[in-house]
Amino acid sequence: MVRWHAHWLWLVVLAGGGWVAWEHHGSASASSPRLPVTSEREVTCVYLARVNHLPPEARALDIWIPLAKSAAEQRILQRDVRAPIPYTVAQEPDYGNEILHATLEPPIPEHLEITIEYRAQLIGADAARAEAPPTPEELHRHLEASGLVIIDEEVRARARRATAGQLTPLAQARGLYDHVRGSMAYDKTVPGWGRGDTRRACRLGTGNCTDFHSLFISMARAQSLPARFKIGVVIPQERPSGVIAGYHCWAEFYVNGRGWMPVDASEAWKHPELADYYFGARDPNRFLISVGRDLRLVPRQQGEPVNIFFAPYVEVDGQPFLDVGVEVRFEDLKQGRAA
Prior knowledge:
Elements (H helix, E strand, L loop, with lengths): L2 E3 L22 H4 L8 E12 L9 E7 L6 E9 L4 E5 L6 E7 L7 E12 L12 H6 L11 H11 L5 H15 L1 E2 L11 H7 L1 E2 L1 H14 L4 E8 L6 E3 L4 E8 L3 E5 L1 H6 L4 H4 L7 E6 L21 E4 L2 E3 L2 E9 L7
Parallel strand pairs: 8-9
Antiparallel strand pairs: 1-5, 2-7, 2-17, 3-6, 3-15, 4-7, 5-6, 10-12, 10-14, 11-17, 12-13, 15-16
Helix pairs in contact: 3-4, 3-6, 4-6, 5-6
């Protein structure tokens, strides 16, 4: 059901620039080699979105923003939206993401700011919520190539080599994970990183978390192992509050009888001593924003499917508009770590 809301603007200061350049640089918790010492944390997380330099001659603006929801790794205890315009909230059909949508007509403001504040419990492995088993249609979706997550002969050959001699889905997934860690380097010096382009990952062997996990998902699907993409942020352990450096993403694969199992190959590349942990660990420092790639939004956007849905997606007069900024702040309410 679509719900209508109307609130007033909460003024915030945001970093400018497009979202593509705003990504995970390694927050304190992600870059630290020590393991989490708690199975649950309670935090506030404030997602600040801004659309900049809107053209005054625009006739219509549409904005879609991903809304975090309760999932296996988190419970959303409270969600408050502050916006200067009416908006709707709906669920997209493919991955179940909740989406805020708003439409503006003239006069179009030069800038637009929307704030979403969450209070959430982040859940570790021993307290993770059980998920309903995926439907056959959902599993089929997680086996198909999609957009930049391709399945070609190069991907199939890599997947065969990585899983040679592995007889169970779990062992095959570990072979794929180890292949990604061994064949990729976390390197953002070559343009094109961060789009989750499997072909580029195969060709260059470099990129960020998005590229690592696109390669993993492509190879998993080539081996008939359902796999999906998740994106959000990592909440630092070492400080009680502040700005989070950028997004982070991970992948999950599905095994009958065990459900969805997470992998974080890019963090394992940075910290090889934690490779066993990042294969299967439901890290209580992750805050999930959205699931999936190539999303059809609600209402449907006029442009192509959205490759990665972390920052707002905006269309001006039916054309994608890229001058958007995002900042995420957090506060640890329980200081959920050992003294």
